[in-house]
From TrEMBL:
Entry GO MF terms: ATP binding; ATP hydrolysis activity; transmembrane transporter activity
Domain of life: Bacteria
PANTHER family found in the cross-reference section: ABC TRANSPORTER RELATED (PTHR24220:SF685), IMPORT ATP-BINDING PROTEIN (PTHR24220)
Keywords assigned by UniProt, alphabetized: ATP-binding, Nucleotide-binding, Transport
CDD domains hit by this protein: ABC_MJ0796_LolCDE_FtsE
Stated name of the protein: Putative ABC transport system ATP-binding protein
Pfam families, sorted: ABC_tran
Entry-linked PROSITE patterns: ABC_TRANSPORTER_1, ABC_TRANSPORTER_2
Domain ABC transporter span(s) in chain numbering: 14-245
InterPro entries associated with the record: AAA+_ATPase, ABC_transporter-like_ATP-bd, ABC_transporter-like_CS, ABC_transpr_LolD-like, MacB-like_ATP-bd, P-loop_NTPase
Length: 250
């Protein structure tokens, strides 16, 4: 099969079809995802919302190739990833997707530049200083490359994490509650940064959030409940998201 970054037939960079994820077995089994289908068009910003335990993180992890669905498929371009051998999947993941976590997950003993270089180094690649500096400049941290994470504010640490996710120029940037550990104003700076990446560089971005105001930065909002996609809102206001969410009990 020819591997292309974008599925020529459907124009999507990533697509999940009839995704199921069951954790555990028998009476203790939890159906985290129960038949979810999602397509990600290039250069779009998608927010995933829903009550606690509705399957948001599981969906993100399956789409990002960090978890294996128990049923259904995930395609990146034309490549079906859910049944690839682990090594091949890890290779593809490094080049195709970036991931940002709520808790930044930076290495405290390393400098900012070393943190951004780390995924490449772990993959055995030679660090590309130019790319690292470029990624840091894109997130507004030019000149900070020798600092340690502990010398930076929370918002700046999340910017480092975003630079680390973007340095490989991924097809899709996944973010799991990227503003969850930040105050409101700093959170908005991070959201504006993600939005700029979508608008100016055509980055595709998917973000889990509990915050209707954060979801207002997205082009569309997917609403999950009990592992099922129950609604999709296009360019909604924060008020519309909040109202729909409260009806779901989120
Ligand atoms: N590794 C796991 N083992 C067992 N159950 C799991 C595991 N991961 C998630 N679950 C269960 O799957 C369901 C969905 O979890 P998930 O974390 O995707 O929900 P969420 O919508 O992201 O929740 P939250 O908003 O609280 O972070 C939950 O019932 C959760 O307890």
């Amino acid at each position: 099969m020819i591997e292309t970054a974008r599925d020529i037939d459907t124009g999507t960079v990533a697509r999940a079809e009839d995704l199921h994820r069951v954790y555990g077995r028998g009476g203790a089994a939890v159906r985290a995802l129960n038949g979810v289908s999602v397509a990600l068009a290039p250069g779009t910003f998608t927010a995933v919302m829903g009550p606690s335990g509705s399957g948001k993180t599981t969906l993100l992890h399956c789409l990002a190739g960090m978890d294996r669905p128990t049923g259904g498929s995930v395609r990146w371009g034309t490549t079906e990833i859910s049944r690839l051998p682990e090594r091949r999947l890890a290779e593809l993941r490094r080049s195709r997707v970036g991931f940002v976590f709520q808790a930044f997950n930076l290495m405290p003993a390393m400098t900012v530049a070393q943190n951004v270089e780390l995924p490449g180094r772990l993959a055995g690649a030679r660090p590309d200083r130019g790319r690292v500096l470029d990624a840091l400049a894109r997130v507004g941290l030019a000149g900070r490359e020798r600092h340690r994470p502990g010398q930076l504010s929370g918002g700046q640490q999340q910017r480092v994490a975003i630079a680390r996710a973007l340095v490989s120029r991924p097809q899709v940037l996944f973010a799991d509650e990227p503003t969850g550990a930040l105050d409101r104003a700093t959170g908005h700076e991070i959201l504006a940064l993600l939005r700029t990446g979508v608008d100016q560089e055509g980055q595709t971005c998917v973000m889990v959030t509990h915050d209707p105001v954060a979801a207002g930065y997205a082009d569309r909002v997917l609403l999950l409940a009990d592992g099922v996609l129950v609604d999709e809102l296009d360019r909604p206001s924060a008020a519309q998201v909040g109202e729909r969410l409260s009806r779901l009990g989120g």
